[in-house]
Amino acid sequence: MPLSTLPVPNRWTRDQHTANMVSPENHTNGQATTLTPELTYFTANPKPTTLDQGLHQARTFIQHHASSNRRVALVTSGGTTVPLENQTVRFIDNFSAGTRGATSAEYFLQAGYAVIFLHRQFSLLPYSRHYSHSTNCFLDFMTANAEGKVVVEDEYQSQMSKVLKQYEKAKRERTLLLLPFTTVNDYLWHLRSIAEAMQPLGANALFYLAAAVSDFFVPAARMVEHKIQSSEDFHRTSAAAVVDNSATKLPAAHMEGKSLIIDLDPVPKFLKVLVDGWAPEAMIVSFKLETDPSLLAEKARYALKKYAHHLVIGNLLNTRKWEVLFVSVAEGENWVRVEQGLAGNGAEAGDDGSGKKDATVEIESLIVPEVARMHVMMIDNCASSA
Ligand code: 9Z3
Predict the structure, then answer these.
(1) Rounded to whole angstroms, how far apart are CA atoms 337 and 69?
(2) Number of domains in the chain
(3) Which of 28, 153, 259, 339 has the most CB within a 10 Å radius?
(4) Left (φ > 0), alpha (ψ -120 to 50) or beta: where does 357 sit?
(5) Is 76 part of a structural domain of the chain?
(6) At 300, which CATH number?
(7) Which domain, by its residues, includes 83?
């Protein structure tokens, strides 16, 4: 589709969307409202202790790049945990290693963006991903020379020095901010706060939501404090009823006889609030993950329609490293594919550790320039319609 015909999504005119929303903490600008689960979530679930520090760093970072009119991408990455106990021994998790997010962050940096990398703690990180979480240990790339100094083996020099240079550039130019989260609650609090902090960037802000966010969680009101006891002789504490919204309910995770029963609540649909309230001028890209190929396009279309954002990138669990489906109002549906035999990132958790990746193509090297191109078009459209 030619540039001039690229539509400006509804939400670029924020008034209709936000006029009738108000949160208990004044996070939107409306008058009166029905309190939806999205709005009550933050009064019912505790603020992470690390939030203020992370937010302070994010604000300084955003201010710095806003002053030079640089585009800033919030890249979310990795899985989210769902703790079953307050003093967490057990939790539910998902498969995501953070390959998509960490790899994409590098390509956004290469494309001139500053990147806030909101990632699951201990998942893959930009640059270090090439040498971590691999079945091949990075120590095998090194050796001690005659003087006893540690050096990189000749065959890994070129790849490692390339990665090192890019990493040092990002550090020197202060274009990469790493912010960790662990639980789905941490993630949601960070997403809201960072999104609001990014508002001064206007259309220069990009949200690239690659994290695999749990659809279900244990609300604070139905979480037990201590480790759930598996032995029937000790069930007393873990099965004690909790009071949730004046109704008495069992804890979300509790023992019944020898079985552990887990009854999770749905995570409210925050994409809608992000689009309408927290980031009304930004470009928003969400990912849709499926396992059934026959559902992917339909589910991606459905998400685009429901949340009225810019772009849904659909991917299948088994083929996500070599093909994705772009679905947008502006450009319809397009598959982005790595040519057969050239797919990089073949190993489950990132790099294959061989250090020899020159012949391979990472799909993010195709995804990110496309997203950046669409973002620039939207910025231009926004400027011309202002
Ligand atoms: C994705 O679909 C990512 O591409 C992957 C990347 C999680 C598949 P890896 O980290 O995997 O490279 O191993 N992310 C979004 C998944 C998600 O939670 N999407 C929600 C949904 O499908 C919508 S926002 O409902």
Answers:
(1) 32
(2) 1
(3) 28
(4) alpha
(5) yes
(6) 3.40.50.10300
(7) 3-139+168-218+264-385
Instruction: Quote the ligand 1 centre to 288 CA distance (angstroms).
Output: 6
Q: Parallel, antiparallel, or unpaired: how do β-strands 150-152 and 142-144 relate?
A: antiparallel
CA–CA dist 284, 75 (Å, integer) = 11
Q: Give CA separation, 232 vs 85, 204, 235, 259, 264, in Å.
A: 18, 57, 5, 10, 22
pTM above 0.90, yes or no: no
Residue at token pair 């909101």? 118
> Is 311 part of a structural domain of the chain?
yes
Report d(CA 38, CA 119) in Å as an integer.
Answer: 22
**17 ligand 1 Cβ < 6 A:** no
3-state SS, residue 168: helix
Q: Whose CA is nearest to atom 11 of ligand 1?
A: 96
Q: Report d(CA 371, CA 313) in Å as an integer.
A: 10
The values of phi and psi at residue 286, to 5°, are: -110, 160
Q: Tell me, yes or no, whether 331 lies in a domain.
A: yes
**Within a domain: 204:** yes
Tell me the per-residue pLDDT of 256-299, one tens digit each, with 9 for 90 and over.
999 999 999 999 999 999 999 999 999 999 999 999 999 999 99
pLDDT of 154 higher than 50? yes
